[in-house]
């Protein structure tokens, strides 16, 4: 039997690198697993990582496998969705997706923009096998 947990948990990643953030991801996943079903094993963890975080999904996966060895999280599949940089323009109201960190509106060229997305590090979901 599989159990799907919609965790949608955010973490303030600004002071850590991949090892530190992965330790926090493991803590969040373990906490949610225990709350849902203490005897269950984790099958899959879905993450959303914003482009501006500069975290490398493969590094997070590597550290996850290293940290979870011998636990109920060992062997879990990690899926990472890249969250693009999206800007909101205060001048014209447009939302612009950027591949590079260029902070000007794609519609009117204004630099009066704010970041709408791209800084996220979210544990989006956890799948358990009980």
Summarize the structure.
By secondary structure, this protein is an alpha+beta fold. The protein contains two helices and eight strands. The protein has helices spanning 18-36, 57-67, and strands at 2-5, 9-10, 41-50, 77-83, 85-89, 95-98, 113-117, 121-129.
Question: What does the model show?
Answer:
There is one protein chain. This protein has 130 residues and is α+β, with helices and mostly antiparallel strands. Strands 1, 2, 3, 4 and 8 form a five-stranded mixed β-sheet that branches. Helix 1 packs across helix 2. 26% of the residues are buried. The N terminus is likely disordered.
Name the average pLDDT: 88
Quaternary assembly: single chain
Give the overall shape: elongated
> How large, in whole angstroms, is the Cα Rg?
17 Å
Summarize the amount of helix as a percent range: 10-25%
Low-confidence stretches: 1-5
Determine the strand fraction and express it as a percent band.
35-45%
- First CA to last CA: what distance? 6 Å
Count of helical regions: 2
Main sheet properties: 5 strands, mixed
Structural class: alpha+beta
- Helix and strand run: EEHEHEEEEE
Main attributes of the structure:
alpha+beta, 35% strand, elongated, five-stranded mixed beta sheet, 2 helices
């Amino acid at each position: 039997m599989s159990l799907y947990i919609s965790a949608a948990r955010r973490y303030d990643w600004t002071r850590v690198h991949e090892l530190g953030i992965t330790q926090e991801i493991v803590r969040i996943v373990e906490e949610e697993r225990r709350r849902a079903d203490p005897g269950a094993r984790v099958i899959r963890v879905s993450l959303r990582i914003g482009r501006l975080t500069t975290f490398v999904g493969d590094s997070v996966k590597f550290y996850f496998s290293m940290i979870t060895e011998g636990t109920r999280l060992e062997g879990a599949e990690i899926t990472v969705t890249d969250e693009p940089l999206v800007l909101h323009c205060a001048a014209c109201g447009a939302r612009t997706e950027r591949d590079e960190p260029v902070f000007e509106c794609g519609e009117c060229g204004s630099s009066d923009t704010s970041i709408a997305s791209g800084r996220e590090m979210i544990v989006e979901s956890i799948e358990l096998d009980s």
